UniProtKB/TrEMBL annotation:
Name of one Pfam family that matches: HTH_31
Name the record gives this protein: Helix-turn-helix transcriptional regulator
Span of domain HTH cro/C1-type: 27-80
CDD domains attached to this UniProt entry: HTH_XRE (cd00093)
Species the sequence originates in: Streptomyces violaceochromogenes
Cross-referenced PROSITE patterns: HTH_CROC1
Length: 280
């Protein structure tokens, strides 16, 4: 699986639910009782007034940092912390991926290396559905639609956050597998070439000819928060590992930096994609 979804990466802002709206109403009530505007409260919790509004209106899952800082502003009663544990999440997200997906919404930098399949943020609908069709245990039609809707919502990050820097390193063999067939792969390559034209997105291919490289231990994701804190996430068959230890993140940072030098340049990566498309 990829990016924490059952059957591959999905995510994004959660659908509004009764629990999210209730939590937001409590935050708003406490804020107004304290005599704070959204902008003033946002400065205290170090989130924008727009983020505060999204939380209060039940449109956004509150980050752990948001809850912790709000608790400090409102007297550390523990009420918000306990309420946050009961929030319902968007369908389509695996439990272990939810925290990472929430952090992605505010990230200013996101690095992704993938050696198993195309990351969820870059997948086309046809490619994603080919993954879903081969999921075990099998998915029913409703689950497939749920997962694609969640993934499509999460993909809005690429164009919706133009000030966030995205870097992707993808193994060449991901395209050579031709998951879903030649037409699906051609569409995927076209999509990647379009995404790579965005100023905030870099796509590099790790060629098969490279042989050994710094990422052979497996896929990884690195993320920088608005507070310039770096976090990491690694995923396996049935679970994910959230990493906050600076020493571990330093190791992953060094590996990713080495991979960027070992992979093809941005221009050569696009040229390789075009050649592979012509061979399909």
């Amino acid at each position: 699986m990829v990016d924490g979804a059952v059957g591959a990466g999905t995510g994004g802002e959660p659908e509004s639910s009764d629990s999210l709206r209730t939590f937001g109403a409590v935050v708003q009530g406490l804020r107004e009782h304290a005599g704070l505007s959204r902008e003033e409260f946002g400065e205290l919790v170090r989130f924008s007034k727009h983020t505060v509004a999204s939380v209060e209106l039940g449109r956004r899952m509150p980050d752990a940092e948001f809850v912790q800082r709000a608790e400090e502003v409102f007297g550390r009663t523990g009420a918000l912390r306990r309420a946050a544990g009961c929030l319902e999440r968007q369908p389509g997200l695996a439990a272990w991926f939810r925290r990472w997906a929430a952090l992605e919404q505010a990230a200013i930098t996101l690095y992704t290396y993938e050696c198993r399949m195309i990351p969820g943020l870059l997948q086309t609908e046809a490619y994603a559905r080919a993954l879903f069709a081969n999921q075990l245990p099998p998915l029913d039609d409703g689950q497939i639609e749920e997962r694609w809707a969640a993934r499509a919502e999460r993909q809005k990050l690429l164009k919706g956050r133009p000030n966030t820097a995205f870097s992707f390193i993808l193994e060449e063999h991901l395209f050579l597998r031709c998951l879903g067939g030649g037409e699906v792969t051609r569409e995927l390559v076209d999509h990647l070439q379009e995404i790579a034209e965005l100023r905030n997105v870099e796509v590099q291919i790790m060629p098969v000819a490279q042989g050994a490289h710094a990422g052979l231990a497996g896929p990884m994701q690195l993320l920088e928060t608005p507070e310039n804190r770096w976090l990491a996430y690694n995923e396996g068959q049935r679970g994910g590992q959230f990493i906050s230890d600076p020493k571990e993140i330093s190791v992953l940072h060094r590996r990713y930096a080495r991979m960027r030098s070992q992979a093809l340049s941005l221009e050569d990566s696009l040229s390789l994609l075009q050649r592979m498309r012509g061979n399909l």
